[in-house]
Design a protein that fits this description.
The protein is of the alpha/beta class. About 35% of the residues lie in helices and about 20% in strands. It contains 17 helices and 21 strands. Strands 7-8-6-9-10-11-12 form a 7-stranded parallel sheet, with helices on both faces. A 6-stranded mixed sheet has the order 16-17-21-18-19-20, with helices on both faces. The chain is globular and about 75 Å long.
Length: about 475
Amino acid sequence: MKNIIIKDILACTGGKLITGNENVVCKEFSKDTRTIKEGDIYIGIKGENFDGNVFWKKALDNGAMGVIIQDVEFDKNDIEAYQNKVIIKVEDTLQALYKLASYKRDIYDVPVVAITGSVGKTSTKDLVANVVAQKYKICKTIGNNNNNIGMPFTILNAPNDIEAFVLEMGMNHFGEIHLLSKIAKPNICIITNIGTSHIGNLGSRENILKAKLEILDGAQNPYMVVNNDNDLLHKWYEENKDKINIKTYGINEKSDIQAKEIQLHEDGSEYTISLNNKEEKIKVPVGGEHFVLNSLCAIAVGKLLNIENEDIKRGIETFSLTKNRMEIIELKNGIKLINDAYNSSVESVKASLAYMNHMKANRRIAVLGDILETGEFAEQLHKEIGKIVCENQVDILICSGESAKYIVESAKDNGFDEKHIYYFENKAEITDVLKQMMQEEDVILFKASNGMRFFDIAEKIKIESNKL
């Protein structure tokens, strides 16, 4: 595999070499002087509230082999002090990042799997990656580095010998996935679902679908993999199945990859499936019907990449969750915390409550906070959650957040006993109340958008419990 050298950076970015050798081989790229490693190339990213370009000297002093920066003027002393380093000046470092990542992507002739969706992107990505990794050496998105900065850096820092990419693509507005798709040029595109996440920015679920479909904009002879149980994706499939190669997965709708005889357990699930003309029993190590769907998606990708049945099964059975996503924390006295507070939407709250219903419990306590980026739909969507709470086996409801007031209001209107509802203006109060009310064998779900930081409450409860 071809290495990127400084000359390549200059050619694809139109940058100017201020000092250094244009034949130097690049290792990895970084945007953070705190974690930079010896030999890295530092890219100074300029945002609305932060300018990484001002730290170019710190990057070089901390071991970077070179820097790519904009809006910096150099004097003789600078050039003399760093004459053994590489300094490249570009017009726009963000555009340079995009061009570099696209250049690096074009070096590889390997499968590129791209994943987007309203909820479940990261969990599905991790499941798909674990299946693909049974056959290929992969490079995958780490954590939620799925935006216009995280995904290009993922590609740039891929080892030369990788055999497949598994990339997550997130968005808040139109055009964002278009950019990522043009850089990644995927040949397998996945949409997990179309829900209400970011509806405040996009205005309707139909517009969310339109934004997600930008995943095809840079695709090369793609297969599309979609959740056929999702109403809008099912409709899109029916309208487009003769125009593009589409593979479907589902539980309720007849699909190419369809689970049968599903058994849901507290710590996982089992189902049967026809896989390459053979009936197979699949075991998913994480509870919840939504993880059955995620695993079906991974099977669909495995089939497209000609991965053997046993390897597909192994990839699913050895999958582990990213932290703060359906993380089960066991405390003393049989108390269990479900830390699913990394992100939230109506659809994911519904799935999390359904999962809690399948758990053996003395009491089921739902700790719910705001879903962010809902805009004018905030009241409507949070009231829908209040109704969903009443449809599930929730014994105690605890809420905090400006929009969470509507969850409480709706729960009361739909018959939830007011004596078992708690609302706090200050979410910090939740920790003290939970410590006082927790009983043996309770199950407590924490669910809110990432910005609400409800995972901090779960962590505090865990720490306090361990001290007892």
